């Protein structure tokens, strides 16, 4: 709960809200300051009795009958001596050009501030309130009302005279009047009434709830929220009334408008004033509390609350206790709450003090956040509304945040904020770097230093690199990788790393970093040597990126020892830069590596390395026998005699069999399969591939005394050799495994062959018949002959110009046409003629299908 306290300060000082509970985390909604300057002097000699607020100025009435016009800062601009007793009410029109004043001695004055022409009257009773028409400036709205024992309406007629009408009387003194548009609301001892000046009808009567309270001690507070919403506060009760149009069908003798109470609720304290704030309500409370030592009540500080109204209750948004001067001597009737509709300004008026409350702006919000050390939120708020803040600077808030984080010891967060706060200010950056060096936290700020278009001096970066080099090799290496080489003097850092390597020559991290520095400095040969020495994965990327193929011609073995696959792929992809002959020369002493290279070369192109195929035979035999046979099959440049010699020396039977068959010695190859491999299936497969009757004969002869071989033959040769030849040569009494199954299979294979032949025959006959029928239909079709057709022999029109003369035409199935006399004589077959053109082209003779005679 915020307070406005004096505590010996000058009256002109602006007072800041202070929380009754210092550790409160809830931000106040309003800020307060005393209205000072001329007001201070006035209230020292006099006491405030009423005040009216206009957007441009203030009008203050006092107990000694004076009215002061003040500017917003409280400086006196005009002074009026109205009476010698208390000013009860001041009313202004919307333009601020006309004022209505009433006093306790019955004086009423309504005049123009710039003309002084108007109404001046003395009544025989005190006039408590006066209200001028909001549009009083306009000639047809020269109206005002006064309230004493009765409510009087004054209107100026066309003769420039004032006409008086009694709007209400008989219910005690009128204590408050509020005029909005065409509606006049007033309160008396009984309740609140609303009068429609346009229809001249009284709309409603809202009775007061607590009739035990004296109306003069606890006056009614009235406030128009808009042209149709009236807020009524009386005692501890608040009602919100809405003026609505009545349905024409329900009017009868009733007013055209009616009032609906949309919200009504009780408050904890007595109400001294009301004012709207958007959809919320500002309430000024007069507070009485019980003393701990005495039974009687005493007057406490007034409270200014912001509440959210509900239909039958309210929700407190904020609550501030105000320490106004002499609050112990004030009653509920001594306080007033006025507000400026143009701005969210609220004036708390008491006899000896005037306090101005206003909504806190973004600067105030940031002040509160900084006071609570919520720097992150303060910085965010300043960044979001940097165009609207006046007293704060985003960068200064950020620096305060950084200082706070450093004081807490959260150096990493402080360094991270530097990137956001310091921005492009290089001087601030350098200051922060030196501060972090002083506290021994250069590592924390290193990763956030500028490294783009905006950069610090190279000495700053070198200082940080030297710091890392002393204590953290890994961190040093990370910075070298992340920072562009242009940020610092590369040679100086290379020298520093070299000095450290003298003490620790095998340190892998330092060696890798040195290679990267050499790369930045374009000394690629030195970088390559280090990478190869370390077997670093980036060596191939370095070679490709900087085209270092000339530098690796003597380092091919090292590259392949590191990663054969990557090295071979790189060499083969760049044959134009490192020739195959050069690679073979370098790998001559490492045949296992040479084999890997030549094998991949052969896979890519069987012909590129043809001159090394003879050499590859031995390499495959030594290091990669599984790929020897595929190599022999695919190579067309391999010397077969050399290959056969190598395979026979190493007793590679399968490879020898392939070479013998390729060289034409199939019988020897079959013999090796049967004798050395003893694999009848492979032998049968080999015989099928060669499709040689003599081989089948040799295979049968070799197998005839071996029952397992006979079984294999019986199962597999049925489609290649007549099984009867094999069966006749089997000795009587020889026991053959699974003979019955083999014979059944032979019969099944034979039946299958018969079925296949019959099926093929049926298909052939059906296709032949179909084609014959198609040809017959085609040849039976008629052929159109007209004047456009020509004789294929004499090239004259086939039909004569005179169709009356007799003529003979021959048309062949091939659609060629001749005059009969242009055809040569019949051939060897009497009566059969053939198309000369088709016969010459060997397309087959075409028989004459039609002879036209006339």
TrEMBL record:
Membrane-related topology note: Peripheral membrane protein
What stretches of residues are CHCR repeats? 568-712
GO BP annotation list = cellular response to starvation; endosomal vesicle fusion; macroautophagy; protein targeting to vacuole
Q: Which GO terms of the molecular function aspect are on file?
A: zinc ion binding
Composition-biased stretches (Basic and acidic residues): 1-13
- Example of a GO cellular component annotation carried by this entry: HOPS complex
Q: What is its main location?
A: cytoplasm
Q: Does the keyword Cytoplasm apply?
A: yes
Give the similarity note. Answer: Belongs to the VPS41 family.
Protein known as: Vacuolar protein sorting-associated protein 41 homolog
Q: Which organism is it from?
A: Sparus aurata (Gilthead sea bream)
Gene name on record?
Answer: VPS41
């Amino acid at each position: 709960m915020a307070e406005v306290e004096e505590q010996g300060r000058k009256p002109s000082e602006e007072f800041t809200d202070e929380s009754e509970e210092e550790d409160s985390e809830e931000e106040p909604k309003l800020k307060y300051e005393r209205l000072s300057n001329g007001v201070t002097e006035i209230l020292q000699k006099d006491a405030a009795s009423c005040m009216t607020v206009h957007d441009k100025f203030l009008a203050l009435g006092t107990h000694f009958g004076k009215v002061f016009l003040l500017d917003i800062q409280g400086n006196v601009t005009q002074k009026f001596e109205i009476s010698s007793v208390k000013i009860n009410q001041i009313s202004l029109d919307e333009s601020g050009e006309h004022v209505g004043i009433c006093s306790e001695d019955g004086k009423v004055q309504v005049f123009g501030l710039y003309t002084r022409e108007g109404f001046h009257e003395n009544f025989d009773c005190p006039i408590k309130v006066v209200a001028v028409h909001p549009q009083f400036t306009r000639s047809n709205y020269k109206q005002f009302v006064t309230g004493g024992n009765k409510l009087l309406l004054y209107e100026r007629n066309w003769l420039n005279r004032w006409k008086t009408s009694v709007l209400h009387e008989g219910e005690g003194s009128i204590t408050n009047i509020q005029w909005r548009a065409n509606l006049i609301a007033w309160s008396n001892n009984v309740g609140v009434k609303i009068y429609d000046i346009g229809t001249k009808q009284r709309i409603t009567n809202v009775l007061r709830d607590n009739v035990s309270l004296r109306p003069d001690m606890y006056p009614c507070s009235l406030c128009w929220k808009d042209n149709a919403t009236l807020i009524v506060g009386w005692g501890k009760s608040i009602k919100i009334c809405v003026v609505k149009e009545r349905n024409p069908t329900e009017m009868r003798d009733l007013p055209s408008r009616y009032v609906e109470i949309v919200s009504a609720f009780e408050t904890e304290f007595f109400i001294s004033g009301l004012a709207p704030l958007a959809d919320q309500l500002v309430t000024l409370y007069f507070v009485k509390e019980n003393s701990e030592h005495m039974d009687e009540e005493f007057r406490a500080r007034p409270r200014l609350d912001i509440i959210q109204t509900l239909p039958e209750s309210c929700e407190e948004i904020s609550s501030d206790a105000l320490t106004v001067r002499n609050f112990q001597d004030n009653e509920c009737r001594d306080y007033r709450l006025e507000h400026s509709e143009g701005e969210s300004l609220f004036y708390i008026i008491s006899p000896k003090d005037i306090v101005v409350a206003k909504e806190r702006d973004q600067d105030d919000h940031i002040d509160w956040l900084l006071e609570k050390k919520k720097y992150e939120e303060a910085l965010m708020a300043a960044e979001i509304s940097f165009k609207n803040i006046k007293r704060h600077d985003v960068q200064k808030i950020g620096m305060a945040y950084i200082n706070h984080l450093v004081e807490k010891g959260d150096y990493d967060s402080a360094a991270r904020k530097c990137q956001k706060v310091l921005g492009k200010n290089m001087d601030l950056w350098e200051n922060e770097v030196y501060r972090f060096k002083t506290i021994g936290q250069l590592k924390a700020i290193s990763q956030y230093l500028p490294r783009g278009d905006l950069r610090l001096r190279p000495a700053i970066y070198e200082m940080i690199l030297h710091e890392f080099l002393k204590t953290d090799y890994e961190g040093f290496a990370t910075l070298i990788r992340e920072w562009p080489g242009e940020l610092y003097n590369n040679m100086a850092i290379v020298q520093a790393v070299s000095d450290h390597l003298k003490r620790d020559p095998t340190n892998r991290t330092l060696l890798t970093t040195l290679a990267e520095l050499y790369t930045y400095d374009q000394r690629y040969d030195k970088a390559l040597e280090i990478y190869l020495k370390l077997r670093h994965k980036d060596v191939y990327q370095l070679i490709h990126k900087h085209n270092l193929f000339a530098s690796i011609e003597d380092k091919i073995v090292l590259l392949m020892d590191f990663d054969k696959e990557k090295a071979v792929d790189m060499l083969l992809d760049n044959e134009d830069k490192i020739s195959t002959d050069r690679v073979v020369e370098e790998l001559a002493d490492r045949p296992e590596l040479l084999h890997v290279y030549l094998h991949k070369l052969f896979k890519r192109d069987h012909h590129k390395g043809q001159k090394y195929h003879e050499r590859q035979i031995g390499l495959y035999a030594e290091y990669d026998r599984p790929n020897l046979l595929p190599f022999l099959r695919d190579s067309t440049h391999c010397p077969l005699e050399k290959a056969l010699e190598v395979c026979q020396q190493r007793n590679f039977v399968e490879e020898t069999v392939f070479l013998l068959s390729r060289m034409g010695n199939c019988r020897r190859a079959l013999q090796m399969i049967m004798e050395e491999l003893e694999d009848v299936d492979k032998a049968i497969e080999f015989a099928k591939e060669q499709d040689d009757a003599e081989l089948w004969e040799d295979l049968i002869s070799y197998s005839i005394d071996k029952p397992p071989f006979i079984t294999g033959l019986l199962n597999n040769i049925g489609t290649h050799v007549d099984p009867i030849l094999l069966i006749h040569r089997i000795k009587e009494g020889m026991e053959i495994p699974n003979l019955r199954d083999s014979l059944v299979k032979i019969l099944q294979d034979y039946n299958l062959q018969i079925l296949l032949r019959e099926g093929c025959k049926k298909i052939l006959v059906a296709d032949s018949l179909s084609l014959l029928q198609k040809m017959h239909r085609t040849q039976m079709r008629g052929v159109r002959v007209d004047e456009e057709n020509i004789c294929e022999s004499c090239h004259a029109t086939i039909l004569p110009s005179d169709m009356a003369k007799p003529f003979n035409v021959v048309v062949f199935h091939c659609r060629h046409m001749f005059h009969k006399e242009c055809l040569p004589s019949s051939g060897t077959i009497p009566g059969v003629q053939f198309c000369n053109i088709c016969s010459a082209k060997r397309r087959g003779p075409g028989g004459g299908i039609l002879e036209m005679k006339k």
